[in-house]
Design goal:
Blueprint lengths: L46 H16 L20 H12 L5 H6 L13 H12 L14 H16 L11 H4 L2 H13 L7 H17 L6 E2 L4 E2 L4 H6 L24
Antiparallel strand pairs: 1-2
InterPro entries: TAT_signal (IPR006311), TAT_signal_bac_arc (IPR019546)
Length: about 260
């Protein structure tokens, strides 16, 4: 069957995709998200510009300048990485749903998943508070945890698939297929140059923290009033019935006795 795909194709082997997920094909390429060409959050990063911006960060991180392509400069990171797109790409990888990020990776479901209102913000806040600063070294600038992780994931994402710099999202990692994202995490998990670094523990925690955010109550939690405003997406994903004040079976006394005289 003839089909057109995005810049990063989904896995060819259907066995690589869980049965509850679906392989999606696009009849036409989607429009790039709004934003000026030079907007680092919503715009377009060409390969030279992206690699040049992250070369010094990776060199400072692992002590070698040979990690990235030879075309990259050794100039400091001087642009804000596309954090929100990157984090949404992680959430879609961990808990695919019916959002554009899940569709782009080629693994999706017909209901909401990890990319829901408030989830990315919650995960970014957790990464900022839990990661030491600067995570990538002073040469990369004083990037908070979520931004530093975005630099790392996007750098390895370009290595996994150079076409990811021209996808519909500003973050190359978010443009990857589900299989390519898995490859990025495998590289991060097994790279011997990360051994003994705090970064090793942070990298290993990314999928775990993403799953925690996706399955939590944050999608329906009002931080100001400190209460739920509806049924959280995480409850639907886990089929959680919700809190209970008790069951009828436990009301009263055993054997239909409803009172006891002393």
């Amino acid at each position: 069957m003839d089909r057109s795909t995005g810049p990063c194709d989904p896995p060819d082997d259907p066995d690589d995709i869980p049965q509850s997920f679906h392989d999606i094909s696009y009849a036409a390429p989607r429009q790039r998200r709004g934003g000026d060409v030079d907007d680092p959050q919503h715009g377009y990063w060409n390969r030279r510009r992206f690699l040049a911006g992250t070369a010094a960060a990776m060199a400072a991180l692992i002590g070698t300048a040979g990690v990235l392509a030879s075309e990259a400069d050794a100039s400091p990171l001087n642009e804000t990485p596309p954090v929100r797109d990157t984090i949404n790409g992680v959430l879609a990888f961990v808990a695919p749903g019916n959002d554009p990020y899940s569709h782009q990776q080629g693994v999706w479901t017909d209901r909401p998943g990890g990319v829901t209102a408030g989830t990315a913000e919650s995960l970014e806040r957790t990464l900022d508070q839990a990661s030491p600063m600067p995570l990538l070294g002073p040469e990369a600038g004083n990037l908070p945890g979520a931004a530093a992780i975005a630099v790392l994931l996007n750098t390895f994402g370009v290595t996994a698939d150079p076409r990811s710099v021209s996808g519909p999202f500003a973050a190359p990692f978010a443009n990857l297929s589900h299989a390519a994202k898995a490859q990025v995490f495998e590289w991060l998990d097994t790279d011997p140059r990360f051994e003994g670094l705090v970064l090793k523990f942070v990298v290993n925690a990314i999928p775990t923290l993403a799953a925690f955010a996706a399955f939590s109550e944050v999608s329906a939690y009002n931080r100001t009033r400190r209460e739920l405003t509806g049924r959280p997406v995480g409850w639907e994903l886990s089929r959680y019935a919700g809190p209970s004040d008790g069951w009828d079976e436990f009301l009263g006394y055993y054997g239909e006795i409803d009172e006891v005289e002393g």
